[in-house]
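Supplementary notes for students who missed Thursday's class. We covered one full example, reproduced here. Read the sequence, then the structure, then the short commentary at the end.
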Amino acid sequence: MTGGPVALDVAPAPAAVPPGRYGPLGQLRSEWTKLRTVRSTVWSLVATVLAVVGIGALATAVTAARWRSGGFVDRVGFDPTARSLAGLFLGQIVIGVLGVLVMSAEYGTGTIRATLSAIPNRPLVLACKAAMFAMVTLVASEVLTFSAFFLGQALLRGSTPYATLGQPGVARAVAGAGLVLTVLGLLALGIATIVRHTAGALATYVGLLLVLPLILQAFPVSVQHSVIRYMPLVIGENMTATRPDLRDFGGAALFSPWVGLAVLCGYALAALVVGGVLMSRRDA
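Structure (token representation):
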């Protein structure tokens, strides 16, 4: 008895990623496309340039023009590096706006549903969004802070004392300023993931950055000295100072610049983790 060839049904190997869905690299490319094509990114970066570089140039130019007529106290307490980075304060607000819009805009327009349909793994969506935002923001922030420093010192040179990157604490202050902007942007993104509404997320971010230090002033000095070191605004200002004796905030003991940055990173990480958990549990 002879038999013919036996046909074997071999099931095709399952695709690594189901058709119509993206893996991590695809999601990163998608986030890059969103960042560079939406108008909010362009306008936010333009506003950051005006804030960080423009205000820094204005502050150093005014200082150079008024140096000879300035008082002794102003000259003794002069920090040329911090003066050229005077625009960091407003830059922190602008970069926070961008961080909020990166997430809240998708919830506002409803496009988050399409994103989550393409990638059901919601923590992966948030991780890719945060990673791409961090890369873009870090590059832009470092370019702006170093540009503000070099322009500011060029305006100061010949009229006032000026700083160079080789002086103690200067390179740390300039590079650290860019890191502070990046981490605060991630904090804003995490807040937006939790709140999901642009206005509410912006109010929360600005409240943490600006309102909390004002509220703290209503408490006794002992409480202020214990809490002020944890304020994001204070951490940012301390990072840009090359002379710690000029930024004592009424005698309060502050964290060292890098320890303060680590605390700030902890805030951002906590906001992103909470946002990721809520994002996984809530409907889009």
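Commentary. DSSP finds twelve helices and no strands in the chain. The mean pLDDT is 85. If anything here is unclear, bring it to office hours.
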